[in-house]
Amino acid sequence: MRLAKLALIAALGLGTTGCIKSMLVKGQIQGTRKASSAVDTLHDFEVARAAAYAGLAQFEGMHKLAPSNVDALFMLTKGWTGATFAFTEDEWEIHEDLKHKEMAEYHRLRAIAGYERAVAYGIEMFSAMGKDGWADARKSPIEMTKWLKDSFTDKDDAAPLFWVGYAWLAKVNVNKEDPDTVADLWVAVALLERSVELDRTYNFASGLTALAAYHARTPMAELDEAKKLFDEAMAQTGNKALIQKVNYATRYLCAKSDKAGYLKNLQEVLDAGDLLPEARLTNVIAKRRARRYLGKARMSDARENCAFAD
Q1: Cα four-point dihedral sign 249, 277, 157, 28
Q2: CB neighbours of 170 closer than 8 A, spacing ≥ 6?
Q3: Which residues share a beta bridge with 303?
Q4: CA distance 108 to 240
Q5: Torsion angle, CA of 215/120/96/291, rounded to 10 degrees?
Q6: Residues with Cβ < 8 Å from 116, sequence gap 6 or more?
Q7: Contact at 8 Å (CB) between 256 and 302?
């Protein structure tokens, strides 16, 4: 009997230890997610890049310890999307302009893989949130629209929908040569549209900006709708979110062949001060892109919609 009691006490102790470890991991993940916005205030591109990659490694480990934790899955979705946009695409563009074909292709493939990883974690996140039915929703735009409206009804749902939708949209943008990838563009649009329906202001109107860029994807696309969405997004932020102006120039004004407007808007980005401290890093990235898009390589080469060769 004494041995049985000792065994029972030991078993209870092990169970309690496991519970405590789980609570600690959950608390650490929640705390890290809440604190992650501090990175958005960084002014140094290189420091931000190191922090982003370190954060990804951290949350990959946390996901291993807590595979169904929604916060960890959200941070992996957001983290892979943000790091791929800010840093991997940056490397791709640098080597494109230098005409380093092999290195440009290497970083382009890295970007595709980064966005695919973000999407994969995002789909896991939907399941962990109890939003079942993704496989059936993927069958058609009608099914997707119905599933999104039935499953995502709270304002807080705008955030996960945005990051998955943006990752999907960005993957298409860097892999436009693949017809299967392009054929699924409607999924990204549906996710972003539902996100905007739930909260048009999320992340400084990033959903509106992404949809505006989508509608300005070619000179034959929905340019009136693009202009309407860009105007709304910039009005919401008082023109302080500079990435909006970069997208407006490189998407809408390029599609309109408006060279004067293109030059004016990108120069305004470069001349802007520290307008939005809580999104300082994104504005630093916007300035970096604006400087590149005003450079000789981008202004003289015939590349997509922006062919302003004299």
Answers
A1: positive
A2: 81, 84, 85, 89, 111, 115
A3: 306
A4: 29
A5: 60
A6: 171
A7: no
Nearest to 49 by CA among 86, 10, 17: 86
Q: What is the residue-level pLDDT of the chain in tens, covering all 310 positions? A: 565 554 544 444 545 555 554 655 677 787 777 777 889 999 999 999 999 999 999 999 999 999 999 999 999 999 999 999 999 999 999 999 999 999 999 999 999 999 999 999 999 999 999 999 999 999 999 999 999 999 999 999 999 999 999 999 999 999 999 999 999 999 999 999 999 999 999 999 999 999 999 999 999 999 999 999 999 999 999 999 999 999 999 999 999 999 999 999 999 999 999 999 999 999 999 999 999 999 988 887 645 546 655 5
Name residue 306's beta-bridge partners. Answer: 303
> Is residue 160 exposed (0-12), middle (13-18) or buried (19+ Cβ within 10 Å)?
buried
What is the rounded distance in angstroms from the CA atom of residue 281 to the CA atom of residue 265? 19
Query: Residue 162: helix, strand or coil by DSSP?
Result: helix
In this structure, what is the dihedral angle of CA atoms 33, 37, 40, 46, given to the nearest 10 degrees?
-40
Distance CA 151, CA 132 (A): 8
The full set of domain ranges for the chain reads 200-310
d(CA 195, CA 158): 4
Amino acid at 29: I
Cα→Cα distances 276→42, 82, 239, 246, Å: 11, 18, 10, 15
